[in-house]
């Protein structure tokens, strides 16, 4: 069908570039077959290597150049292919961009997630901003929506970007710490640059610790402009909302996950797509008529500000689905090149000074990373739209141009390729005038109102996490003057926040500061209207010899039926002999896993199994740690004994009727068919993500 033409062209294009080396003869890069690749050509068995050995020279040369420079920021990433499709055509009144307005068109995409501060070898779960960059292969050319999982950035002008990145990167004297913001130079910068405070509040919140890329919002950050068929402009903010809801890890978890599985988020994305649990996001927009540009108490062009959804609602546009993993990480995820200036007709820029600098920086970065100006010909970057221009030669030129001319205007080639065809990009006609100056707009100088709005929009538990994050980060700062200056900035946001942070870092609490400014935005809290689903949630089921095999099988089958991923963890790998006669296959050995890698834990009945687990310190710690992190915990029959061994003081059932005490779901039933009410209650606890009101003070860490 015509609506799938762009997607099919991209798939065919990638198929041509996909190489399967299995069952093929070994050749050089020139296609010459090679008879031996283990030894260099030499003058005799112990003689010198000969320069004429073109195969070994080529092999070593290619190896020497295998690594390209990693990204200065966003080096650690993961990506996948998918499709985007609009729901309907309502946005046609605001933009001519066909991929946003034609509900019959499916546009292929590549989406790359990333951390910002760390190197390629850093862990996934560090406290950091996450990149959320989408390349749309539209029929009118590539469009790149290069965003983050925060809607605001740390600085207002691109001139400060090198300074900010230098400050957050490892300190130059010792290259410490890796992928962390808890050090002197970052907080020195923050204490002297109050424009950073709004993004810093997001960085100290749970938003900086996503449970999964699949459970993470995305934002275009900047105010862009949509342009309709009559050349009329409308300001726009882009939002990505995950179908699974927005969920986060807790700080204790992320530190342990970094050791247990440094690839936690990358693996999660890969495994979900391989299993057919395709991640989905809804694209939404906030639209502001140009005549309302100055209707807010902040500047729309200030990238450190967001538009509260209560003022301008987010309107749904369409759905993005990731449905295929890359075939080769380097060729695709590492070489994909995003650029904020890759726009198509109907989408244009604003005078946001940070966006204007990014429009220069991204292209400049790709030139050094990918070896020259032909990086757009790399398969993952290649548009599905036809490419015709007079650009020639350069490193990595893949195209064989046969035209007699490479300039415009010309008569030899009939003046082709000719500019000005239908659907050409036309820049928005905006009147611009003014003196040449280096001066920040006065409208950019409210640094504290939106950080205060963010703080006052948090739930109690989210606020506790923010305070704890500030205390941890500033506790790593060795310069006491920097700590004091940061607290002084925080008192401009909220006096109570500054006092709570100061108490934990050995700084005198301020006596006065900003009071509650009154504005809140419920949409900023992750706990407002959460998506409750067990889909793709990972559940550990602990078992040892003598387990109630019938009950275990019933529980696992029910979880799978609901869309969860249940794994049986044995004390060792292999088969587990059950008390009910059938053997149970352990999916993994408990010593190789950790509770922080799961969303919930269940303990089946079986007196011998529970006794063995209770004697194993790792099993006891597994349950206690999951409980301490607020995760759903379930036990039935004798399984309640392991909860007691873990000092879980929840109310436990003494009969068949299940009890749900702050996400601890129990029943005395065992074997046979588990009560439906028990299964429903456990699924409901998992869908709730965390039991935030659970008291865990008495549980060892």
TrEMBL record:
Catalysed reaction equations from the record: 2 H2O2 = O2 + 2 H2O
Presence of keyword Ubl conjugation: no
Active site: 74, 148
Covalent cross-link 3'-histidyl-3-tyrosine (His-Tyr) as placed by the record, residue numbers: 339-362
EC class (word): oxidoreductase
GO CC annotation terms, alphabetical: cytosol
Pfam families in the cross-refs: Catalase, Catalase-rel, Catalase_C
Superkingdom in the source lineage: Bacteria
Xref: InterPro entries: Catalase, Catalase_AS, Catalase_clade2, Catalase_clade2_helical, Catalase_core, Catalase_haem_BS, Catalase_immune_responsive, Catalase_large_C
Enzyme Commission numbers on file: 1.11.1.6
Binding-site residues, heme: 71, 112, 161, 358, 362, 369
Residue stretches of biased makeup (Basic and acidic residues): 1-21
GO molecular function term, any single one: heme binding
Domain Catalase core, chain residue ranges per copy: 27-416
Ranges where the record places region Disordered: 1-47
Names of required cofactors: heme
GO biological process per UniProt: hydrogen peroxide catabolic process; response to oxidative stress
This protein's record includes keyword Oxidoreductase: yes
Keyword annotations of the record: Heme, Hydrogen peroxide, Iron, Metal-binding, Oxidoreductase, Peroxidase
Record-stated family: Belongs to the catalase family. HPII subfamily.
Protein purpose: Decomposes hydrogen peroxide into water and oxygen; serves to protect cells from the toxic effects of hydrogen peroxide.
Protein name as it appears in the record: Catalase
């Amino acid at each position: 069908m015509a609506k799938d033409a762009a997607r099919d062209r991209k798939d065919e294009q990638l198929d041509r570039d996909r190489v399967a080396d299995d069952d093929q003869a070994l050749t050089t890069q020139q296609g010459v077959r090679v008879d031996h690749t283990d030894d260099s050509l030499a003058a005799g068995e112990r003689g010198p290597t000969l320069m004429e050995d073109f195969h070994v020279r080529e092999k070593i040369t290619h190896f020497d150049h295998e690594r390209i420079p990693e990204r200065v920021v966003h080096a650690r990433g993961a990506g996948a292919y998918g499709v985007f499709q609009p729901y309907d055509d309502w946005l046609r009144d605001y933009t001519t961009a066909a991929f946003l307005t034609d509900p019959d068109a499916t546009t292929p995409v590549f989406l790359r997630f990333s951390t910002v501060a760390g190197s390629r070898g850093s862990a996934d779960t560090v406290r950091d901003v996450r990149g959320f960059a989408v390349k749309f292969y539209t029929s009118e050319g590539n469009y790149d929506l290069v965003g983050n999982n925060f809607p605001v950035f740390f600085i207002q002008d691109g001139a400060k970007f090198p300074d900010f990145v230098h400050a957050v990167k490892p300190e130059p004297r010792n290259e410490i710490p890796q992928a962390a913001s808890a050090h002197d130079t970052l907080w020195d910068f923050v204490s002297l640059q109050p424009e950073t405070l709004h993004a810093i509040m997001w960085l100290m919140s749970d938003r900086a610790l996503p449970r999964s890329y699949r459970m993470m919002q995305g934002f275009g950050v900047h105010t862009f402009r949509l342009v309709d068929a009559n050349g009329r402009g409308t300001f726009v903010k882009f939002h990505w909302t995950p179908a699974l809801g927005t969920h986060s890890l807790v700080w204790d978890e992320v530190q342990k996950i970094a050791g247990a599985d440094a690839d936690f988020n990358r693996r999660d994305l890969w495994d979900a797509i391989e299993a057919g649990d395709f991640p989905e996001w809804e694209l939404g927009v906030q639209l502001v008529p140009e005549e309302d540009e100055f209707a807010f108490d902040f500047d729309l062009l200030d990238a450190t500000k967001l538009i509260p959804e209560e003022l301008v609602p987010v309107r749904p546009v369409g759905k993005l689905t990731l449905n295929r993993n890359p075939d080769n990480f380097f060729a695709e995820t590492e070489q994909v090149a995003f650029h904020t200036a890759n726009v198509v007709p109907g989408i244009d820029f604003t005078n946001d000074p940070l966006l204007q600098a990014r429009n220069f920086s991204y292209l400049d970065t790709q030139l050094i990373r990918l070896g020259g100006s032909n990086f757009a010909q790399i398969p993952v970057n290649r548009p599905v739209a036809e490419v015709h221009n007079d650009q020639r030669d350069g490193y990595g030129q893949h195209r064989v141009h046969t035209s007699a001319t490479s300039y415009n205007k010309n008569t030899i080639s009939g003046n082709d390729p000719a500019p000005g065809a239908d659907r050409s990009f036309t820049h928005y006609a905006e009147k611009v005038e003014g003196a040449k100056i280096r001066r920040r707009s006065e409208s950019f100088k409210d640094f504290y109102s939106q950080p205060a709005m963010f703080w006052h929009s948090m739930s109690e538990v989210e606020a506790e996490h923010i305070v704890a994050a500030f205390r941890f980060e500033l506790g790593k700062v060795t310069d006491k003057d920097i700590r004091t200056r940061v607290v002084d900035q925080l008192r401009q946001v909220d006096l109570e926040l500054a006092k709570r942070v100061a108490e934990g870092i050995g700084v005198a609490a301020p006596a006065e500061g900003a009071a509650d400014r009154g504005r809140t935005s419920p949409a900023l809290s992750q706990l407002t209207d959460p998506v409750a689903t067990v889909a793709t949630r990972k559940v550990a089921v602990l078992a040892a010899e003598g387990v109630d095999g019938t009950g275990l099988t019933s529980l696992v089958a029910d979880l799978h039926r609901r869309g969860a991923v249940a794994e049986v963890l044995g004390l060792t790998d292999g088969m587990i002999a059950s008390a009910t006669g059938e053997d149970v296959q352990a999916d993994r050995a408990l010593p190789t896993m950790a509770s922080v890698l799961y969303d919930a834990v269940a303990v089946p009945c079986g007196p011998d199994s529970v006794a063995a687990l209770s004697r194993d310190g790792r099993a006891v710690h597994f349950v206690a740690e999951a409980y301490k992190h607020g995760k759903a915990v379930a036990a039935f029959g004798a399984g309640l004994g392991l909860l007691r061994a873990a000092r879980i003081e929840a109310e436990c059932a003494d009969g068949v009727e299940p009890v749900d005490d702050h996400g601890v779901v129990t029943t005395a039933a065992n074997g046979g068919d588990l009560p439906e009410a028990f299964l429903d209650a456990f699924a409901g606890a998992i869908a709730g993500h965390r039991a935030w009101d659970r008291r865990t003070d008495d549980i060892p860490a």
